[in-house]
Please model this.
Amino acid sequence: MAETLDLSMFVERGDAGAAHMTLAVDGVACAGCIRKIEGGLTKLPGVIDARLNFTQRRLAVDWRDDKIDAASIIQTLEGMGYHAHPFAPERVDADESAQARWLLKCLAVAGFAAMNVMLLSVSVWAGNVSDMTQETRDLFHWLSALIALPAAAYAGQPFFQSAWRALRARQLNMDVPISLGVTLALALSLYETATHAVHAYFDSAIMLLFFLLCGRYLDLAMRRKTRLFAGNLASLKAEFAHRIDTSGELVQVPTAALRPGDRVLVRPGERVPADGTVISGTSDIDESLVTGETLPRAIVAGTTIYAGSINVSGALTMRVAAAGAGTLVDEVERLLEKAITTKSKTVRLADRVSRLYAPVVHATAALTAIGWLAAGASVHDAIVIAIAVLIITCPCAIALAIPAVQVVAAGSLFRGGVILNGGDAIERLAEADTVVFDKTGTLTLPNPRVDEAADIDPELLERAARLALSSRHPLAAALARKAHGRSPYPGAVEEPGQGVRALIDGAEARLGSAEFCGLAGNEPASALRDGDTSFITFTHAGKSATIAIRQSLRPGAVPVTKALRERGLRLMVLSGDRAAAVAPVAAALGISDWRAGVTPAEKIAVIERLQSQGWRVLMVGDGLNDAPALAAADVSLSPIAAAHLTQAHADAVFLGEHLEPVLRAVVVARRARALMKQNLGLAAIYNALAVPLAIAGVVTPLIAAVAMSGSSLLVTLNALRARLVAPETIRGRNWSVGEPDSAPAPSLAASHRPGLEAKENPPHDQRPQLSESLHA
Amino acid sequence: MNVLIYLVPMALLLGLIGLVAFMWSLKSGQYDDLDGAAVRILPDDDIED
Model:
């Protein structure tokens, strides 16, 4: 291609022509790949260093700008068989890795301090029942204080800061009782040490911090891992646009580099890279990703077109525009803003528990002190016992109960191809009792499929598919999937807007519109019957065939919707498409509750009405028109092929073509919620056993340590059960995402020939990589 | 019990060394690519043949 590729937006410049770039790389599977990539790149003249991070599947390259450029580095990688795309690091990424480092440092300090304090404490416990002198015990207590106080001051920061923020906002969170418990335990121990007492709780305080930091770190690590993966996917999916420079030259730039006012060429078969107005050219535009409408719209100069729609027939020149008032994008953004601000704040389980927990614990401690005073104990004894109550109820198990399950469940979903945007989405998923589906791209596949293949001579169909490889038309792309990896015919010529022709075995073959093939007026009657089907005609050596291309259901749509209904969920379809296109889909899935031609505002209205009736709504959608509805719903899912804005507002994104991750998300979330409640129950039982001992004043540091670590371990082990999901969710279906979807896609007409269905995996499929990165 | 005079400082010192070693390994980026470290030892390209 004569066009130049401009990647300057991703390159960081150093001094004296030094340049640096980070790339997301796909297809890295083993040690050989690392060697091949690093070795191959460092051999290039001008490349100073190339280092591949195998965990993140990201490659950092340093080079001298005068010798080589970014585009040729990517080209070299493509030549080696690795798809790579520059990665623009986000602010969130940097913040999170800094936070992860900080938590890990706190964890290390707490861990080493806990080990050393425990060493001293065990000696004291052993000495208390043998012959330890008071002087030695005091020495050991002072040494413990020397280790524990600075360590707690450092490692406790995440909790102290969070508790302080909550208190300043006049709220209570779990970190308030934690901070209070730790501080009081340390203060009491210091006082007891100074007064030569037998018991000190330095070990309890520092161990508590260690356990809690473990939970925090794991939680953050899981979130980082999913975000990292999502970031790579987004980078690798990024598309390029052909910008027309002022000199009239074509420059290929990443779509993210487009600015309002830029002129862009959109060729037939390409995606529109940005919102804007058409300057010249006529074409039809498939806006199914934007509005859900499956029939292409005719475009002339002056029409507004939206990012994500597909240019079907003619080349267009457009001018990129910021979303102007009155456009669809503008309306979607306005609705989004409203939906986000009015979004009903569901109170998280952990917050609900901590709101109840803190007052109860503090009241119990106060009552204990008063009780002992009333019973004639000294002020010192009463306060010591009250503080022991606070220490023993310090919510170690409760604070671990929910994050531990979230981490395990999020990992399980990740392996199942569901990438969560936030941990609390699991709770909201579990509570959903209504599922609202979008149709186009959600219940149906984003790209149309060849239908009724059985009626056509397979040999003819195969020839048509091979010829279709030479066309950029979206309908031809659907047909080309049936070529089963065969090469295109040499010398095929595409006539834009009409079709392709080539010489096959000495006879001319034509693929395209009926007029192009000389068969005008010969279209089948079914074209009138169903507005959702497009036809493509093929003629070769006197034989001809009319191939129907239509939207087909996602694989698994029928069993998944059935299984969801069996689990007591109410199903509904809200589509922006015509009734004629929505009705057959709803009928095929047995969903009686459907509405067609719904605008983004109406989608929100329907969801809000459902919510006001007390339903918890799970919205599944992919189009730009679904974004406000996704934000308004209690919880939302969107497929990986969804519009960018839409994905950003979904609570989770699912990979692959199968609809099954939707069911899996619900099943895993419900199980996780049950486990969270179980864990809270376990923590409550622990408190019910330990608190009476503390109130009675018989809790020693040894009992506190055993009880605390025992309950934390129990809760964590119970959380691990979230990995085990009932295998019979869909019978006969393998759960692995790493496996390609070999199951044929059931078309709406339910007529397909097994064996003719093409596998839908592009050469660089992300899914095997997902399973690998998890096995590692 | 006089043995404590050097046993206790020794224990504290060992703990401190462990902590410092961990902090150093964290700072030098040894936890940045855990999976990579596992596979990078496999190729024998450093052996001359």
Notes: Residues 4-38 of chain B form one domain.
